[in-house]
């Protein structure tokens, strides 16, 4: 009856066996699923959710691993670039150690292009160079002489105003920033101005620790200080030679405009010793015997005349020796000659504090010191007022001040009515052996052999014409100025000009700036380092370190 089909077996519930799920008709005749169907759907959704969650976790872990791998790779590349830069600075220190010449010019070991051009090492290369608009290529491979610049910690207002782009308000604001008092000059600003700013701070009322500190002084900005050299690395970077395409604004002429940066410093300091390393004799205080011992060929009568002169007119600087006339038998002291109107007072200055601004590297300074037997006394900074710089023989220690006696001017103030005792030839022989300061170190002296013409023209007594003549003498090769007395050989130089300039000049250098740049061969890493080095009898040490 059923067509030969076996009857379907029913379970106890009356449902057909052999299937977990079957369709049934409702009383209305519609089909509906069995209760097992929704349970199977929930399980599927749960499984899919777990799979998605696990996939997200796996992706997140994979992304995290990639990020950490990239961070580690960047750290390795930064470390490689940093140590290449350290190698460049170490090479610069070695060049200073190898330089055994006493008088410094532009043809020294520390400015040897073959030594500082691109050098391959390990994973990359490095070079040491700085921008020089006066050079044929616009760049010089070697170290930058800090003694070739104007030291803004001791420069007179006249010297500051002679710098390109300087104004009355900038000069006065700088002087107020560094002087110890709280009295604002005519166009200057003291702490009351800085305290009224949105982010207030105090004027230092002391010497600047770094050149970048000028950015805190009213009126100074990055354009005035750096020109086109936005990062201050002394090199023409792509963004500094693309017009207005990217900051900073530049003229895209292929030549770096370095602003004031290339002409100013806070580090320059010379030793108050002669070229043989002997202490100079202070003609303000030395006895007749000491004068005769230091000044070859000096007679007792001439020594007596020097003692008599200083009893009436203190030596403003060593050039005033040219004013001395024959001694007069008027009862002046001729023995000790210790009466001097120059009073020196040492004011200690913590080098560590002065170099904390903008300094990076932690213990790196220790790792870069070479043959250091102890802290050099040249590490400080000078807090001298501009007027204190006037009339000094060579300056004073950066960390001390000299109260200079009034300068004698021109041919006035002579000790007697006779003829002048010393001519330029004899003076030039003694110029390296005498001084008018008891300070051990003299800040802010400008090296005649290395300074750019703009810096030379800012020296009192010099101008653009004299600076040009100095440039011609240097262009002839060698080191034309062994002592500052050789300046009298320059065309157009007069005794009066020399008297004004002598207290601001030297022919030696002790502080240098190394602008090192490293690059990895892969092209995926580079670093620029700016380091200031100082050499002395103990070796070479690091004064300043900054990484870009």
Task: Write the topology of this structure.
Elements: E1 24-25, E2 31-32, H1 36-98, H2 113-116, E3 119-121, E4 124-131, E5 139-141, E6 144-145, E7 150-151, H3 157-161, H4 168-178, H5 191-195, H6 222-226, E8 264-265, E9 269-271, E10 281-282, H7 288-294, H8 300-312, E11 343-346, H9 351-354, H10 364-367, H11 386-389, E12 400-403, H12 424-430, E13 434-435, E14 441-443, E15 446-447, H13 453-457, H14 464-475, H15 495-501, E16 505-506, E17 511-520, E18 526-536, E19 539-547
Parallel strand pairs: 7-8, 10-13, 15-16
Antiparallel strand pairs: 1-2, 3-4, 4-5, 4-17, 6-17, 9-14, 11-12, 17-18, 18-19
Helix pairs in contact: 7-8
Structural description of this entry:
The protein has 548 residues and is α+β, with helices and mostly antiparallel strands. It has a domain of 196 residues. The protein contains 15 helices and 19 strands. The strands form seven sheets. Strands 3, 4, 5, 6, 17, 18 and 19 form a seven-stranded antiparallel beta sheet that branches. Strand 4 and strand 5 form a beta hairpin. Helix 7 packs across helix 8. The termini are far apart.
């Amino acid at each position: 009856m059923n067509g030969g089909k076996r009857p379907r077996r029913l379970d106890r519930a009356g449902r057909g066996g052999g299937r977990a799920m079957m369709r049934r008709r409702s009383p209305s005749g519609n089909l509906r699923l069995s209760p097992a169907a929704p349970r199977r759907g929930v399980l599927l959704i749960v499984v899919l959710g777990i799979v998605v969650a696990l996939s997200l976790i796996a992706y997140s872990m994979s992304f995290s691993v990639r990020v950490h791998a990239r961070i580690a790779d960047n750290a390795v590349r930064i470390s490689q670039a940093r140590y290449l830069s350290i190698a460049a600075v170490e090479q610069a220190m070695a060049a200073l150690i190898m330089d055994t010449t006493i008088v410094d010019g532009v043809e020294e070991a520390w400015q040897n292009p073959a030594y500082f051009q691109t050098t391959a090492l390990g994973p990359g290369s490095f070079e040491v160079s700085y921008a020089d608009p006066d050079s044929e290529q616009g760049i010089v491979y070697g170290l930058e002489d800090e003694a070739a610049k104007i030291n803004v910690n001791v420069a007179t207002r006249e010297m500051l105003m002679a710098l390109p782009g300087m104004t009355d308000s900038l000069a006065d604001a700088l002087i107020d920033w560094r002087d110890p008092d709280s009295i604002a000059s005519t166009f200057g600003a003291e702490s009351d101005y800085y305290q009224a700013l949105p982010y207030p701070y105090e004027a230092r009322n002391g010497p600047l620790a770094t050149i970048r500190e000028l950015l805190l002084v009213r009126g100074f900005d990055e354009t005035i200080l750096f020109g086109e050299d936005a990062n201050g690395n002394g090199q023409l970077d792509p963004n500094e030679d693309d017009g207005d395409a990217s900051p900073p604004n530049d003229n895209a002429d292929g030549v770096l405009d370095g602003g004031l940066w290339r002409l100013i410093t806070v580090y320059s300091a010379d030793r108050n010793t002669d070229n043989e390393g002997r202490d100079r004799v202070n003609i303000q205080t030395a006895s007749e015997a000491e004068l005769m011992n230091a000044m070859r060929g000096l007679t007792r009568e001439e020594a007596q005349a020097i003692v008599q002169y200083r009893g009436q007119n203190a030596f403003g600087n060593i050039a005033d020796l040219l004013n001395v006339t024959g001694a007069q038998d008027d009862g002046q002291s001729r023995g000790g000659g210790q009466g001097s109107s120059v009073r020196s007072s040492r004011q200690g200055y913590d080098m560590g504090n002065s170099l904390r601004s903008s300094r990076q590297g932690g213990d790196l300074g220790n790792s870069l010191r070479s043959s250091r037997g102890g802290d050099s006394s040249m590490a400080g900074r000078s807090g001298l007022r501009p007027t204190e710089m006037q009339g000094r023989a060579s300056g004073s220690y950066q960390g001390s001040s000299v109260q200079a006696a009034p300068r004698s001017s021109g041919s006035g103030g002579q000790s007697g009515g006779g003829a002048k005792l010393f001519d330029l030839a004899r003076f030039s022989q003694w110029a390296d052996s005498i001084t008018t300061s008891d300070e051990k170190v003299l800040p802010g002296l400008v090296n005649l052999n290395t300074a750019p013409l703009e810096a030379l023209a800012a020296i009192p007594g010099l101008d653009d014409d004299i600076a040009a003549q100095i440039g011609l003498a240097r262009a002839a090769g060698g080191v034309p100025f062994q002592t500052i007395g050789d300046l009298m050989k320059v065309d157009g130089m007069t005794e009066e000009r020399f008297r004004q300039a002598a207290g601001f000049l030297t022919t030696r250098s002790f502080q240098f700036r190394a602008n090192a740049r490293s690059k990895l061969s892969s092209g995926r890493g580079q670093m620029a380092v700016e380091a200031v080095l100082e050499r002395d009898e103990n070796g070479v040490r690091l004064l300043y370190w900054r990484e870009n």
